[in-house]
């Protein structure tokens, strides 16, 4: 379970650029629940994921993951329990290392020991089997450098990497936004499969209202660092993309000129 209590994040405190990115967020997410997160630019979505990953330390409030108070823990201390996949396919893996080496590093996230001996024969076989499940043929390219892969292939490997260290929280930061529609759909079905098989507690930031309603169990909308919508169950099932867009318009007090993007 994830529990955020009255989280406030202020960037650049005391400077002319001071910005309150999160303004008292309280949110409890049950174990295994999949929450989609929407909101306009600057609403605080990435900051919220940062607070959970540990790369943003809350100015005030408390963050709990499971029974542990992780409020003051940085990313390294949380690495074994929180995995993250970014919008940029290049961001979550090392291009100069092979697929296999990236998987070995991911499997050791959160451990204190050095890199060796990362790759025994059993591990190699396990990694190969996990990559074969993607049905992308990458199991025959385990020694290829990551930077030879397409963006979609790289996101698929990143999702496998996210599950190797036994993390129970998965943070997805617009992880399909840079992909073509076909690959985005493939990555979303893979995400769905991984999240449900491993019962990962998942937050997915998306700019696609369609994705926000089609995937997961619950949708929250952020605006101005606050939660302005939190829907689940039947009330979410009856919600249409058009309803979300209307809410966006209301929040922003202006006409959206990128409806097509939001619907896609
Ligand atoms: N490191 C930082 N220093 C200063 N201000 C920041 C920092 N990170 C975020 N902000 C500001 O905090 C606010 C929330 O940013 P955040 O990136 O969380 O929004 P977002 O909802 O993810 O937006 P987008 O959809 O554009 O990615 C914005 O006004 C942003 O400019």
Automatic annotation (TrEMBL):
Domain ABC transporter, chain residue ranges per copy: 2-249
GO function term, MF aspect, one: ATP hydrolysis activity
Keyword Signal assigned: no
Superkingdom: Bacteria
UniProt-annotated location(s): Cell membrane
Transmembrane portions of the chain: none
Membrane topology according to the record: Peripheral membrane protein
Pfam families named among the record's database cross-references: ABC_tran
Keywords in alphabetical order: ATP-binding, Cell membrane, Membrane, Nucleotide-binding, Transport
Major localization listed first in the record, in broad terms: membrane
Family per record: Belongs to the ABC transporter superfamily.
Name used for this protein in its record: Putative ABC transport system ATP-binding protein
Species: Mycoplana azooxidifex
């Amino acid at each position: 379970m994830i529990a955020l209590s009255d989280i406030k994040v202020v960037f650049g405190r005391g400077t002319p650029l001071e910005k309150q990115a999160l303004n008292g967020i309280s949110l409890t997410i049950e174990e295994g629940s999949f929450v989609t997160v929407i909101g306009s630019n600057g609403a605080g979505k990435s900051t919220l994921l940062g607070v959970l990953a540990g790369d943003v330390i809350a100015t005030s409030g408390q963050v709990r993951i499971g029974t542990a108070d992780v409020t003051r823990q940085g990313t390294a201390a949380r690495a074994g329990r929180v995995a993250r996949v970014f919008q940029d396919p290049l961001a979550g893996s090392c291009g100069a290392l092979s697929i296999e080496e990236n998987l070995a590093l991911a499997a050791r996230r959160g451990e204190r020991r050095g890199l060796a001996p990362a790759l025994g024969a059993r591990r190699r076989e396990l990694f190969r089997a996990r990559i074969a499940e993607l049905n992308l043929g990458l199991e025959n390219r385990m020694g290829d450098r990551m930077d030879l892969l397409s963006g979609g292939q790289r996101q698929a490997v990143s999702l496998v990497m996210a599950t190797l260290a036994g993390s129970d929280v998965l943070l997805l930061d617009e992880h399909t936004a840079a992909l073509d529609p076909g690959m985005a759909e493939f990555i979303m079905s893979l995400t769905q499969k991984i999240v449900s098989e491993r019962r990962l507690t998942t937050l997915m930031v998306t700019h696609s209202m369609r994705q926000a309603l089609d995937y997961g169990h619950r949708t929250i909308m952020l605006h101005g660092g606050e939660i302005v919508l939190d829907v689940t169950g039947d009330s979410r099932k009856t919600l249409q993309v058009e309803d979300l867009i209307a809410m966006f318009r209301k929040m922003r007090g202006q006409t959206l000129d990128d409806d097509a993007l939001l619907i896609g």
